Amino acid sequence: MNESFVLGLVTIISAATPLLLAALGELVVERSGVLNLGVEGMMLAGAVTGFAVTVTTGSATLGIVCAMAAGMAMAFTFGVLTLSLMANQVATGLALTIFGIGLSSLVGAGFVGIAVDPLPKLNIPGVSTMPVIGPLLFSHDFLIYASVALTAGVAWFLKRSRGGMILRAVGESDESAHSIGYDVIRVRYMAVLFGGLTSGLAGAFLSLSYTPLWIENMTAGRGWIALALVVFATWRPWWVLFGAYLFGGVTILQLRAQAEGWFDVPSQVMSMLPYIATILVLTIISAGPWRARLKAPACLGKPFRPAS
Amino acid sequence: MSDFNFTRRTFLATSSAAALTMGAPMAFAAEQIKIGFVYVGPVGDHGWTHGHDLGRKAVEKKFGDKVKTTFVENVAEGPDAERVIRQLASSGHQLIFTTSFGFMNPTLKVAKQFPNVKFEHATGYKTAPNVSVYNARFHQGRAVIGTIAGHMSKSGVAGYIASFPIPEVVMGINAFTLAAQKVNPTFKTKVVWVNSWYDPGKESDATKTLIDQGADMITQHTDSPAPLQVAESRGVFGFGQASDMKAYAPRAQLTSILDDWSDYYIQRTQDVMDGTWKSQNVWYGMKEGMVKFAPDGDSITDAARDAAEKVRKGILDGSMHAFTGPIKNQKGEEMLPAGQSLTDEQLAIMDWYVQGVQS
């Protein structure tokens, strides 16, 4: 394997990470039966907050913490509107995205044209200098490691923990969960806040690591791709990771193919490739033996009104 | 002097009531002239729209209370644009600048309904009695930075992050490559299309890919500073786009091509005030001050600086042209014999690459 190939793989990892982070949170939200289309808006809130706090205080750690808090604040607004006030989730989620675009532009107006140092790479002594696997596995910033750890954490939580089972029960049948004594609204609030947290984190990754700068609307649609990945992954965490890396991989591959002049096709066709690949895989896994497991949470998008 | 900032939505909501009451333009009623600007992106994009907004501010600074400007940002190219332009026209704006290629047909459509309002459309090609078009010869700037790239590239390969395959972008790629080949005949330009004017993440990925392929000069026809930032961190050089991006790449930015619409906007405002406004189709360049450069970066070599200066002077005094023969296409066929230059008409429909472009 030559060096350029390895560098290409490293690029894929950083392209996939924001999608992975945002999609993991949305997955938990949707498993609890709530559809939050405001991922893009929450990511932007996280991106601008993370950047602004880092520039103002000089501390990227504080920036990341505040980015998560900003994402959660947006998510909380969504929660109040849809869970407490029973507003329509689709409309509220869309409004959250539009609101996030405007608010982040306003907050960020004074931060256009400023650059920050990217997050430091955690070079693990001894192994990070090894050929191939060193740059590939052992010299990223900690958000990339965190995204993989988070995948494992979410997978474990949903499948093995008591809290995860309650969350799934709430998403599959809110009435039953309610009748055996679980507080449906409270569980959903927590899921929605977790979704805000990871979206904020994804935004911070964009503005502090991926492209360390702030410009309006810098997410450029990644929140929507994260939403699609959740469906693509059929609401399973490891599939989200696979989907994010597949999408990132094909995106980078098509850029590389253009630079190398591998295929003589219009660049517009190449730009479609990540989407085509994702749809193809989705079609394949939708057929055959996997089909039975392809179920969306039964209560997805339905507001819950406890019968009194 | 006032400054009204609307997003598309609030603008449409708040001005619809006003539009009902003001049927006819008030071209002769007020001494203060109302000028409207329609932007395709956000004023904070640090690129294309930002440049136009600097032009608007220059108009305000120059004329003070005699003008009142309104801008509407983030206007999508299509039906939305037509509504926004009509709102501006029907609310007493006498001069309206529509600053994106895709606003061409909406502008013409609205202009027909408001013969007393003057329209200025950027980068288009269709005029009407009350519609002018204006554009800048960015390819002149590309010839200057191409000269620098030719001098400073060690690998002889440049990476070009491109947006959409339209003549404007294609002629930029060609002008850059031809200028670099005058210095280094084997110079190659690798082009990656990101099919977006603005996606920092994708621009950054494209840049990384190009550097992985051996490019050590990065230039772009997209709007974010992300490519330069990657160039900075990966230790290669690059050129800014539309505005000075030195803050993002203090070492890597060798210079930047700047769009300066101020003089043109001031001139056209003056023309409306004097009643001398006439429809025209202009393509201004470095000579008219529409294409400028950011100060040279510290890393630029003396040889590169001198050569670039020579090209700059040559284009300014007309002794040099960005497209002078012999020019061959990618297949090696002669497209232009020695001693001739491509005409503006030929440039405006350019859809082929010169030899040495890999796309």
Structural summary, described in words:
- The complex is a heterodimer of chains A (about 300) and B (about 350).
- Chain A is an all-alpha fold and about 300 residues long.
- Chain A has one domain.
- Chain A is built from twelve helices and no strands.
- The longest helix of chain A has 29 residues, at about 5-30.
- Chain A is globular, with a radius of gyration of 20 Å.
- Chain A starts with a helix and ends in a 22-residue tail after the last helix.
- The model of chain A has no long low-confidence stretch (mean pLDDT about 90).
- Chain B has about 350 residues and is an alpha/beta fold.
- Chain B has two domains: about 5-135, Rossmann fold, CATH 3.40.50; about 140-260 and about 290-359, Response regulator (Rossmann fold), CATH 3.40.50.
- Helix content of chain B is about 40%, strand content about 20%.
- Chain B has helices at about 10-20, 50-65, 80-90, 105-115, 140-150, 165-185, 200-210, 225-235, 260-275, 300-315, 345-350, and strands at about 5, 35-40, 65-75, 95-100, 120, 130-135, 155-160, 190-195, 215-220, 235-240, 255-260, 280-285, 290-295, 325-330, 335, 355-359.
- A seven-stranded parallel β-sheet of chain B has the order 1-3-2-4-5-6-12, with helices on both faces. Chain B has a seven-stranded mixed β-sheet with strand order 13-11-10-9-7-8-16, sandwiched between helices.
- In chain B, strand 7, helix 6 and strand 8 (about 190-195) form a beta-alpha-beta unit.
- In chain B, helix 5 packs parallel to helix 6, helix 5 packs antiparallel against helix 10 and helix 7 (about 200-210) runs parallel beside helix 8.
- The longest helix of chain B has 17 residues, at about 165-185.
- Chain B is globular.
- Chain B starts with a strand and ends with a strand.
- Residues about 10-30 of chain B have low confidence and may be disordered.
- The interface of A and B includes residues 18, 102 and 259 of A.
